């Protein structure tokens, strides 16, 4: 039986060409001017990121698991990393990493449970999906606290790696 050995949370930037990006950029500017010691560059703009999970199995296969705003299966997509998906991983920014061993049936059970929910931009989006996977499937201590702590950690690592609007060119 195939066993899961590694999971990494990836973040990818959503479109910069939208009103939210401009508004959040303005908030970042005010934050850096009014509170330069505690406002990291691009903090608000990093909210405009898509979270997806990269799962690696003991047989070296790589799968992508994510929740998207599509009507089928609650928006849950679980696909083997082909050439396009590998390119997506290589261009993305990995953040939290879990390593261990997990039976693939637990992953499938989690996916089936999540497919019962509809996508919701506020309460059942890609960020909640990653958090729920780390909490309920992997039982990772980093997801046992508040949702905000988990996502803030991922977004801070994303900014540190040069991702999003917080990159230092």
- Round the Cα radius of gyration to an integer and report it: 16 Å
**Average pLDDT for all residues:** 80
Shape annotation: globular
Can you count the helices? 5
Distance between the termini: 45 Å
Q: Quickly give the structural class.
A: alpha+beta
What percent strand? 15-25%
Element pattern in H and E: EHEEEHEHHH
- Quick one: biggest sheet? 5 strands, antiparallel
Helix content: 25-40%
- Please mark out the parts with pLDDT under 50 across 5 or more consecutive residues, or reply none: none
- The total of beta strands comes to 5
Which strand order do you get reading across the main beta sheet?
4-3-2-1-5
Q: What is the domain total for the residues?
A: 1
Which descriptors apply to this entry?
169 residues, alpha+beta, five-stranded antiparallel beta sheet, globular, PPPDE domain-containing protein
Describe this structure in words.
The structure is a single chain. The chain is 37% helix and 25% strand. The chain has a five-stranded antiparallel β-sheet with strand order 4-3-2-1-5, sandwiched between helices. The model has no long low-confidence stretch (mean pLDDT 80). Helix 3 (104-114) crosses helix 4 (126-137). It has one domain (3-166). With 169 residues, the chain is α+β, with helices and mostly antiparallel strands.
Q: Short summary of the structure?
A:
By secondary structure, the protein is α+β, with helices and mostly antiparallel strands.
Topology at a glance:
Blueprint: E1 3-13, H1 19-34, E2 49-57, E3 62-67, E4 76-80, H2 83-91, E5 93-103, H3 104-114, H4 126-137, H5 147-160
Antiparallel strand pairs: 1-2, 1-5, 2-3, 3-4
